[in-house]
Amino acid sequence: MKTKNDSGKSLLLPRLIVAFLLLLSLLAISFYGGTVSYSFFFAVLLLPISCLVYLLIVLWRFRIYQEIGSRTLVSGQPVSYFFTLQNEDRITFSSVRVRFYSDFSEIETLPEQPEYELLPGDRYTYETRIICKYRGEYEVGVRDVVLTDFIGLFRIRYRFPGVIRAQVLPKIVELSAIRALKNLSAKLQLEKKDASGMPDAVLREYVPGDPVKLISWRQSARAMKPEVRELIREERRGFAVVLDCFRPDEEGPEGYLPAENKLLEIVLAIAFYASSHGLPCRVLRNNSLSVSVIQSAEDFRRFYEESAAVSFGRAEKPEDFLSDPAVLRKMENPQAVFIAVRFLSLPLLAAVSRLQEQGLFVIVYAVGDAALPEEVLPALNGRITVTPVTPEDDLTEVL
Q1: Which residues, in sequence order, are CB contacts of 205 under 8 Å at separation 6+?
Q2: Which terminus, N or C, of the chain has the lesser number of Cβ atoms within 10 Å?
Q3: Residue-level pLDDT at 5
Q4: What is the helix (H) or strand (E) element at residue 38, kind and residue range?
Q5: Per residue in 7-19, pLDDT tens?
Q6: Using one digit for the tens of pLDDT, what is the confidence trace for 135-170?
Q7: Which residue has the higher pLDDT, 236 or 81?
């Protein structure tokens, strides 16, 4: 088996040569005639026919196999992959070019569009790894095979029938901290300072079995009876995450797959951060009435498995969704609301501002270009936190 580097060679030159020889043979017949001229003419005429028959034989006898380590993958994580080329005939396959899907996946350490020459009985296996870039369900591996005859007159391309369709899950990004929450911590410290005059415990009459260390001796002396302090515990509030599932009808997979993958990565990163820190997290989508409640590692595992089936398409506008009182009730008074959207607009920022007026701390992640749309910049008055995220960004550096 030989690997060629001229995979992109043109068919024009061989065809011009054959056409010139055919014209030359016709001129020889016209001006000279004879057995030699006619033999030359038929030899040139049989050349393209024999090339075409050769290609059909190669197409019939050529074999290619491929396999992937798992049909269920995680975006960005490599898995084992191999493909095998085999010549089961007694003739040489002069030019076999294998082309792979490259829009949403890539194969490690593989020459670009390699071209192979397979001798009789040759079997070639290439073992490598494949990486799927985005969440979703799509075809990976060999896309089609291009066969060229021995002198380069004809080329046949056929779609590989044994295509692999992979189910790709979004990647889980582990965050050590969420930058936007630093502002929330400062706000909570300020509120705690403002409420320093509020009692952190209430007094009640002593009940047998209460710990002695909780007895307030000063107050017991005043009341002439034993009283204990009952601490007021602050409710542990969690996060609410809103996922925008809207997808324009006219957009193709090249546009929506990278963006939707990043939206899900953001949601999963925040949910995983919350579950690992013992904080409840509620995930809401503007194309579903259900709420995903994550309070433990098992809840997150279940939510992660369900994330592969999250559908994007027609959905309620994010600004209308956030303005619905029922949605606000489903959030259950979180300490922070994270909103992951693709399209930032003035109505959406107005809805965010109304949430802030109700005492909620809101962070918006806009997936798309690195720069925010100019028309929304005047509405960012310093109170609304909006972070632009591109599909290629590393969330550990952005979030």
Answers
A1: 225, 226, 227, 228
A2: N
A3: 53
A4: helix 34-61
A5: 456 788 888 998 8
A6: 888 899 999 999 998 888 999 998 888 889 998 989
A7: 81
pLDDT interval class at 183 (50, 70, 90): low
Task: In whole angstroms, give the CA distance from residue 327 to residue 316.
Answer: 12
> How many angstroms separate the CA atoms of 262 and 324, rounded?
26
CA separation for the pair 89, 250 (Å, rounded): 47
Q: Give the number of other Cβ atoms within 10 Å of residue 155's Cβ.
A: 14
Average pLDDT of the residues in 346-353: 90
What domains can you pick out in the chain, each with its CATH number?
2-169 (2.60.40.10), 200-234 (no CATH), 236-398 (3.40.50.410)
Checking phi first, is residue 34 left (phi over 0); if not, alpha (psi -120 to 50) or beta? left
Between the alpha carbon of residue 52 and those of residues 60, 88, 139, 151, the distances in Å are 13, 19, 31, 11
Separation between Cα atoms, residue 266 and residue 67, nearest integer Å: 31
Give the angle 65-67-73 at the CA atoms, nearest 5°: 155
pTM for the structure as a whole: 0.74
Query: What is the structure's pLDDT at 242?
Result: 95
How does 126-148 read in b/e, with b if 16+ C-beta sit within 10 Å?
A: beebbbbbbbbebebbbbebbbb
Contact 137, 165 (CB under 8 A): yes
Q: Which of 9-18, 64-73, 270-279 has the lowest mean pLDDT?
A: 9-18
Q: How far apart are CA 14 and CA 261, in angstroms?
A: 47
Pull the structure tokens for residue 278: 């013992």
* Predicted confidence (pLDDT) at residue 270 exceeds the cutoff of 50: yes
Mean pLDDT, the chain, rounded, equals: 84
Alpha-helix runs per DSSP H in 106-252: 180-194, 217-223
**343, HSE (Cβ side, Cα atoms, 13 Å):** 12
Cβ atoms 354, 382 nearer than 8 A: no
Q: End-to-end CA distance of the chain, in Å?
A: 50
State the residue for tokens 């997979």. Answer: 253
Token pair listed for 326: 């029922």
Q: Strand pairing partners for 66?
A: 83
Pseudo-torsion of CA 131, 137, 141, 147, nearest 10°?
A: -150
Distance of CA 60 to CAs 28, 55, 88, 116, 151, Å? Answer: 38, 9, 10, 17, 19
